[in-house]
Backbone:
């Protein structure tokens, strides 16, 4: 199906994506892992571009590289996780054998799914309608997002609102200690409330 | 076009009321921070008005393409969810005030969770199913950890969040497999592919993943590990909420998915794949729930294992895949919810001057201090143990009857044995209440808890009379799925 320079770029970037995904898992330094994660996202975005989905590519860059990965980087740098200590405790728990077992099971499952699938001949492959050359997919997404998919759009909005409420509920603390400046109260003060006049007789204290 | 939108919004009116109500409550809450009780009553009023709309003006149809299906089944289950939520809000007021977690976000979060459950119940394709589940679970994660200065509650929240995220991952993976091999996300289109002939392995794997993720939500074995810890750690009213409304929503989602989509699979020799899965998790839940409950000392942990085993019994009814089976699931959830809300009112009433108690031994000698309360609790526990002619007995009667109708005798036999084993831990509480010396005095129980206890006691003991009235409604609801 893929011909010419497109196929070269496809194989280049997909192998780069797989390689960097492997590096995310095996790299010893967390910061390197996150940087490889960013590389994985970038390669995925380029694959989207090759498939003609430029909107998804840009969204992937904006959301995953621009926000999520940078957030990861901040967390990793600020938390100072002691990886060697973590590794030692993980070895003590002997969890890695179990994890390995599960990974093998999932791998066998993927292989069996792959082998048993019937693949369509290239002639039956569905193509987008209308042709992508006539209308950009950003425009097509915009047309659908606010009409046919308005319900999902609204519910996603509710989920995001809920995430915001949840974060505030769990983390916001009103500290009682610090004295804050209340300008209204300062302005409302009059000499009667602010000053107490004492008559001090001579030769006596108060 | 405008008319069509109005008609669709008309069908969706209860959901719209809850959604707008939740957002408005958030706004009102900012200004009424100090009158927490008024806010809870406002939230209850919002839920009641949605309930009223559902009961008084039922209207059926599809909304937004196939995003939501509003039918008799969804109406019945939504009424259950809304009713359960109203009662949970009612019994939560005092506890939250005493524990100083009476924050105005609590009713808002409950409303959002309820909205998510309503979407789950009437989901008509995989996208609205996923969004409904996420809306519900996100609110529940926060609710579990709302007592953020309590170590156990925080732990419960984190545990629930991590495992919930894992189950969401499984769900999405399963949905992507199903989408990849059938080419659509709508329930009716997928069901067409299922009925067309032999399934590809990919579809079967997708189905297994989706059912596994949903089993997480109803805490069915082998995905039950989080339940005892989360139930024990979360504040008691939140646990009461976890044990009732979300379970009803998730069970109705599973029922709709199984009956409308997976059950159209054509098979010749073996049982269809969905039936094998449902029988397996149902059997596992009954047995694990029955055995693990024996050693429990904490009543909230005991309720967790009890809810695991009750989900197993409901799944036995579903495993038949017949009209009678679905009807039995509906009735089972109704009865399970009324018993559970009653028992959680008791747990909320277990309070002495030092604070709230959670040990089963603290109930010793309750009959001497408050005979009336003890009588109702005994009725409820007898019903949990499915002693004949109480509600719990009828619930199991219907589910086992549906399974026997399909010839699943070994399954029903295992279910009965598990039920007999679980009688032990219910009756142990009864014997503690009536035959042991009193350990400590309970504070006088508040009027709303007493009200809920009395209502659920009456419902459980007089189910014979209510059943005549409920059965036709449940049958009508079940029929709308076929």
Residues:
């Amino acid at each position: 199906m893929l011909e010419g320079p497109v196929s070269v770029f496809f194989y280049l970037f997909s192998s780069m994506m797989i390689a960097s995904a492997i590096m995310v898992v095996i790299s010893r330094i967390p910061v390197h892992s996150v940087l490889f994660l960013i590389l994985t996202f970038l390669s995925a975005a380029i694959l989207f571009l090759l498939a003609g989905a430029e909107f998804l590519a840009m969204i992937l860059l904006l959301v995953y590289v621009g926000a999520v990965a940078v957030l990861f980087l901040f967390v990793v740098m600020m938390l100072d996780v002691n990886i060697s200590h973590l590794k030692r405790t993980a070895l003590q728990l002997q969890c890695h054998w179990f994890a390995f077992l599960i990974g093998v099971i999932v791998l066998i499952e993927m292989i069996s799914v792959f082998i048993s699938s019937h693949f369509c001949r290239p002639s039956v492959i569905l193509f987008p309608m209308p042709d992508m050359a006539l209308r950009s997919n950003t425009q097509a997404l915009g047309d659908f997002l606010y009409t046919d998919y308005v319900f999902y759009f609204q519910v996603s909005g509710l989920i995001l609102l809920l995430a915001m409420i949840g974060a505030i509920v769990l983390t916001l603390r009103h500290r009682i200690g610090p004295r804050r400046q209340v300008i209204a109260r300062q302005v409302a003060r009059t000499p009667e409330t602010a000053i107490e006049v004492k008559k001090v007789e001579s030769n006596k204290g108060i | 076009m405008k008319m069509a939108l109005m008609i669709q919004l008309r069908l969706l009116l209860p959901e719209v009321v809850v959604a707008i109500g939740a957002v408005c409550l958030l706004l009102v809450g900012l200004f009424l921070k100090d009158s927490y009780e008024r806010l809870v009553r406002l939230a209850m009023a919002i839920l009641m008005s949605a309930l009223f709309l559902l009961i008084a003006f039922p209207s059926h149809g599809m909304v937004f393409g196939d995003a939501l299906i509003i039918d008799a089944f969804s109406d019945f289950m939504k009424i259950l969810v809304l009713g359960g939520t109203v009662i949970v809000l009612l019994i939560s007021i005092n506890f939250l005030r005493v524990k100083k977690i009476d924050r105005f976000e609590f009713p808002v979060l409950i409303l959002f969770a309820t909205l998510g459950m309503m979407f789950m119940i009437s989901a008509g394709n995989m996208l609205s199913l996923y969004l409904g589940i996420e809306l519900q679970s996100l609110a529940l994660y926060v609710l579990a950890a709302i007592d953020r200065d309590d170590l156990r509650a925080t732990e419960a929240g984190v545990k629930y969040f991590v495992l919930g995220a894992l189950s969401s991952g499984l769900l999405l993976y399963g949905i992507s497999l199903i989408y990849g091999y059938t080419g659509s996300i709508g329930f009716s289109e997928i069901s067409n592919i299922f009925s067309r002939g032999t399934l590809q392995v990919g579809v079967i794997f997708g189905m297994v993943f989706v059912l596994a993720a949903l089993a997480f939500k109803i805490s069915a074995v082998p995905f039950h590990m989080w339940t005892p810890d989360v139930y024990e750690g979360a504040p008691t009213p939140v646990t009461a909420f976890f044990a009732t409304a979300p379970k009803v929503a998730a069970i109705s989602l599973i029922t709709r998915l199984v009956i409308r989509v997976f059950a159209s699979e054509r098979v010749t020799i073996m049982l269809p794949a969905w039936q094998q899965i449902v029988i397996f998790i149902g059997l596992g839940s009954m047995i694990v729930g029955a055995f693990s409950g024996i050693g429990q000392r904490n009543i909230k942990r005991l309720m967790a294992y009890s809810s695991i085993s009750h989900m197993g019994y409901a799944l036995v009814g579903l495993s038949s895949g017949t009209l009678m089976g679905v009807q039995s699931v509906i009735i089972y959830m109704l009865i399970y919810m009324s018993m559970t809300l009653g028992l959680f009112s008791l747990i909320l009433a277990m309070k002495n001057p030092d604070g709230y108690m959670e040990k089963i031994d603290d109930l010793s000698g309750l009959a001497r201090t408050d005979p009336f309360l003890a009588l109702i609790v005994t009725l409820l526990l007898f019903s949990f143990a499915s002693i004949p002619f109480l509600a719990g007995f009828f619930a199991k009667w219907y589910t086992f009857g549906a399974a026997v109708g399909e010839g699943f005798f070994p399954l029903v036999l295992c279910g009965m044995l598990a039920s007999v084993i679980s009688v032990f831990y219910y009756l142990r509480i009864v014997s503690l209440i009536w035959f042991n010396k009193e350990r400590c005095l309970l504070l006088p129980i508040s009027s709303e808890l007493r009200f809920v206890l009395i209502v659920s006691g009456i419902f459980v003991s007089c189910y014979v009379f209510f059943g005549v009235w409920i059965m036709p409604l449940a049958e009508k609801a079940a029929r709308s799925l076929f």
